[in-house]
Every structure is written in C-alpha cells, then in structure tokens.
Specification:
The complex is a heterodimer. By secondary structure, chain A is an alpha/beta fold. Chain A has one domain. Chain A contains eleven helices and 23 strands. In chain A, strands 5, 6, 8, 10, 11, 13, 15, 16, 18, 20 and 22 form an eleven-stranded mixed β-sheet that branches. Chain A has a ten-stranded mixed β-sheet with strand order 4-3-7-9-12-14-17-19-21-23, covered by helices on one side. In chain A, helix 2 packs antiparallel against helix 3, helix 3 runs antiparallel to helix 8 and helix 6 packs across helix 7. Chain B has a single domain, classed as 3-Layer(aba) Sandwich (Rossmann fold). Chain B is globular. Classes of the chains: A alpha/beta, B alpha/beta. Chains A and B meet through helix 1, helix 9 and helix 10 of A and helix 2, strand 7, helix 3 and strand 8 of B.
Chain lengths: 485, 258
Amino acid sequence: MSTNVNTIRNLANREYEWGFITEIEDERVPKGLNEEIVRIISAKKHEPEFMLEWRLKAFQHWASLEKAQAEPKWANVKFGPIDYQNIVYYSAPKQKPGLTSLDELDPEILRTYEKLGIPLAEQKMLAGVAVDAVFDSVSVATTFKEKLAELGVVFCSFSEAVQKHPELVQKYLGSVVPHTDNFFAALNAAVFTDGSFVYVPKGVRCPLELSTYFRINAAETGQFERTLIVADEGAYVSYLEGCTAPIRDENQLHAAVVELVALDNAQIKYSTVQNWYPGDREGRGGIYNFVTKRGKCLGVNSKISWTQVETGSAITWKYPSCILQGDNSVGEFYSVALTNNYQQADTGTKMIHLGKNTSSTIVSKGISAGHGQNTYRGMVKILKGASGARNYTQCDSLLIGDQCGAHTFPYIEVRNSTARMEHEASTSKIGEDQLFYLQQRGLKTEDAVSMIVNGFCKQVFRELPMEFAVEAQKLLGVSLEGSVG
Amino acid sequence: MSLLEIRNLHVTVAGQEILKGISLNVNAGEVHSIMGPNGSGKSTLAQVLSRRETYRVTAGEILFEDKDLLAMKPEEAACEGVFMAFQYPVEIPGISNTYFLRSALNAIRKYRGEDEMDAMDFLPMFREKLKLLEMDEKLMSRSLNEGFSGGEKKRNEILQMAVLEPKLAILDETDSGLDIDALRIVAKGVNAMRSPERAMLVVTHYQRLLNYIVPNFVHVLVDGRIVRSGGPELALELEQKGYGWIETAARQTAPVSA
C-alpha cells in the first residue's frame, strides 16, 4: 500500500484554489464591539428604528453572555479563545452609493467572482440560476431581479429588503432564530451587515434556482450575514449558497444565521456547498464557521429540506434544523461533511415535531481523513401533541487513514407513544481491497478513492440541484487530496 | 517472445515464503491452468501478477510483453492488459456497475492514447456482452456487486473482462461457489474470449471447470513450486488420484536447499 499512501498524501496536499486576495479599497469600522459600533452599522445601512432596537437588544444579550463566558462549549471541537474585541465588524468594498447596474460595480469585484466561476453578468449566467453576491459584509449584486419581480418573487440583499419590505422583515426576522437562541445567534443579530432575502408569494413556484455566493476578502474581519426566506402559502423555492475565502494565517470568524419560514403547503429546499478556507496542512488559519440555521414549517403540509456539503472551514459548528409545527409537515436533512488535515466539524440537525403526522428524514455522511475530526450531533424530539410522528435517521461515517476520528451523538426524545422512530448507523474504512479492486480495473488511486467516496455520498448528492451536484463531487475530490492511508 | 515470462519468482507474505521459485512462460493464444491444493500459492501467484502490493517479491522477475511487470502499479498493469477475475469480488456502494465499467474502460483507453468512449458508443457494445453472460441489464444500474448473489458476482467479473478485453486474463478460482448452470454460463463467456491474441491463466482447485474451459497446459503447484506440468489429461489424473500422490512425489524430489 505504500504507493497508495503516497498518492493519497499528494492528493491531500493540493492547494486551496480559491485562496487569492482581491485588492480593493474597503470601508470599515474600528475594531471591537460595543453599543456604538452597533449604532454605526445600523446608521450606515439607514435602518428604521425597529431594526436598531432589535440589534441593541441582541447586543445587550450577547454582552451578558460574553461576560458570563457563555460561548457554547459542548461541541466536540477545540479552539483557542476568540478575542471579540479584535474583530472588525463591518467592512464593505468602497462603491458609489445607489448602484443601479453591474457596470458601476468595481471591476475587481466582478473579476473576483469570475475567477470563482460565478460570473455576475447575466448573459454569462448559468441558465436558470439567479445569484446574489455578498462580498465581505455587503451584497454587491443580485441578478435576474426583474424577471423574478414579474412573478412577485422578492430576491434581494437583506439591506434592500429592510428598506423596501420592512413589514415582511419585521414580521419574520428573529421568528425562527430569536436573538436569545445562542451566543453566536445573539452576536449575529447585533452586528449582521447583509445577506439575502427571499419572499415567494402565494401559489408561486419560483422558476429559477436562487443562489447566494458569499466571499470573505478583507483581513481581520468577521462575516456575519443573515438570510431570511419566506415561502407563502403553496409557494416553492430552491435556494443554494456557496462560499469561499482567501488563504490567511489567522482564523476568521463567520457567524451567520439563516431563517426559513414555510406557510401552508409551501416548500423550501435549501442547499449549501460550504468551501470556506479550511486552513493549511498543519492546521494554521481557516474559517471558524459557527452558524445557526433553522426552518419553521409553520403551515400544514409544508416542507423544508436542508442539503449541505461541508468541505471547508477549520471548524464547522452548524445544525440546520426544522421545527415541524404545521400538521403533516415534513423536515429533511441531507449532509456530507468532510474533514481533512486538522479540520474539525461538529454538525447535524434538530427535528422538533410539534404537529400531528409530521415526519422527518436525516441522512448524514461524515468523512474523516488526515487528522480530521468529524462529529454528527442530532436531536429528534417528538412532543406530546405530535401524534403519528415519524423519523428516519441514517448516520454513516467513513474513515480514511488511521489518524482521524468519527463521532456520533444522536439524541432522541419521545413524548408521544404513537411515534415511529428508526435509527441506522455505520462506520467503515476505505478498504485496501476496495481500492485494489478499482485499481486492478485501471483506475488511478486518487480516482479510485474519489469514486468510493462519491458512492458513499450518493444519497446526499442526488438531493442537490444538478449542476451543483457535479460541483460538489469535484470539490470532494479536491478536498480529499492526500488522504487515504 | 512470450506474452508472459515468469522467471524464478520468490514471494513472501508476512515473512513467510509462499512462492519458492516459479518459472512459467505463457504465449498469446494459450490457456494455462494452475492447479494445486489449498495453501500451495495459487492465489498468491494471481495476486502478484495483478500487482497487489501486500506481497513482497524477494527474487526473480516477471516480464509482460518484455516490460518489467514488477515495476508497474496495479493500474498500470491493468492498462497494459492484465486483468484478474477476483475470487472474492468487492462491493462498492453508490457506484453503478455501468458507470464503473465505463470509467475503467476509459481509464484504460486514455492510458493507451485512445479516445474515451461516450455512453452512445458504450451501450450497444455493453449490451452485447451482457447477452453473452446472460445478465439482466437492470442489474447494471445497481451498485457495483452490492446485493449480488455469489454467481452474479462471478458472472460480473467475466462481464468486466469481456468489456475490458485484456491481453492476459487471470481467473482466480472463478468456479468456487458456482452452481452448475452458472458455471456453464461463465465458461461460455470465457471461451468466447479465447483468441490468438489473448492468454488466460485459470487458477482452480477442481478439474470440474476444466471440462468447460479446456486448457492447453496444466501446471500443478505444491508448496510454492510447480511440481508437474502437462496437457489437459493431467487435470483428469489429479481428479482421479487427488493431490496426495503428487505431494508425496514432490517432497521426495524437492531440493534440500530450498
């Protein structure tokens, strides 16, 4: 196996392709966090009074948590103390106010997205996908806006939504993830600077995939974006987010919040391909990805489906969850999380069953390579009134090499005796016999490894929109470089 | 020049010498059968030829079309035209048989500087081969070998051989675990592959398979050495007398220094 080990090492040592830095002028607030900074952020965004009040409440809550050192410590990840006063909470590319077309956008930013394979010029766009591009703290461009507007679909930056649709924002902001939810959610609520906003009106099936592409560029900044998606009665929307960041030696904090609301008979499909900079081979640098994502199936027969492919970040801490409030509502969570080198991931989901005949499905695939540590943490909670609830959980781990770790912490809490629960779990290693079999048929080691891993993840990949499934497969291959032993 | 030349091959596994000086020439167009009792080194020979790296070659050389086979990685040997039908085919979840086989074929074609085959060209050829092995096309959209019966797995090995068209096909105990009908189908597939350009090495315990795949030469392997070679009649003799007599004879003639 010595040749295999070497090939796999070479693979693992491939460079992070998205690690370049864009030289642009930015506008930023002083480092640190206090009430004044929160006021500045709100003022810069010309926010109405209710937003400022909401932020200040969140800030006070966060400050009390910070004083009590109440950063969540239960996750199975290790990292040094984060100095929250040493972070810049607002950084935006300098641009003319009131950008009306892409032509006015800094060409360096356009080039950045082109380099990332996300051309923003609409004639070059992938057919059927509308993109919102978030660069550091602000949204820089949203494509296909007019086309969507004809159907009444709102797809814009969060800042724009606050200005143009304050009633929707006020109604739903914090309704799924309140600012008191957890330490990072409180931090986000106080300082979030932008993100995407989607509203799909009654009975509309959104014809385009909506997609937000997040890019961290500036040094010493954190990225705190917030996404809110509301699908009104009978509406359908499929949304995808992608993310990358430059290679830097220090860790950068990304603390986002995503809230989804599905009303009666509505469906939201939310897919993530997370490829933040993972740090180098020795574990230096990389993004701390501390994210709170939650969806509420508020209406009857509603459905929220999360699909995530997590290959980046030094540390991933996220649990896209569903509150199944409406009767017959459905929650799904499909996840591939890969940790290589010194990456750590503690990820999973919560399915909270409140309504009758609610059902949830969890399929989690964890892949650990190098010195990576991969943890699945999940909770399925069936409350008293949730008669006829069902859950199926499948949780598989694949180990590559003998330095990595896979851990699972499934919690199940059932308070209604009519519930039906299924839980399956497996742990396996890429076997020498599997590799040899594929090599004996002519496949190179790296192709053999990537074939085995892709096979392992298939159940999740098939939930992704077509083009992104292909991307995700490629990404997995790259992220695995240098891993089997 | 022989297609395959094995010269004085010595192989150890975990410190124990398993092959103790094998020499064998195989020409294109020939079918050789390697027979022998359990633990005689038959499978080790098959594995070394297909370049499994857990085996340590301590002496000797192997030439495949005059190239040093022992310097090749498994995938290089495969691309040069060495194919092994596994005794225990491996299951790979989530990868369909068709996808796998087309990827393998294209990896080999690419290595040889040929154009990759697209699905349009691949399918008609593939269907022909499926028919030959009497296999259901539905099986092919399932994951590689997953949930296949023992017989289906073995037939799938021969199907792969038929698609990849190797120069040297090594059949490692392909008959084990096959019922008589499956054996007949497998043998039909193998026989259809016999050609003046192709050689086969049929590794087996039993003579039974050789009723269907009649070899040109039979070699008997005992304790890491070829102790007797002959024509197909040698296999019949073994069937009647068992391996006992030949083992006894081998011990008497074995060089003391080995």
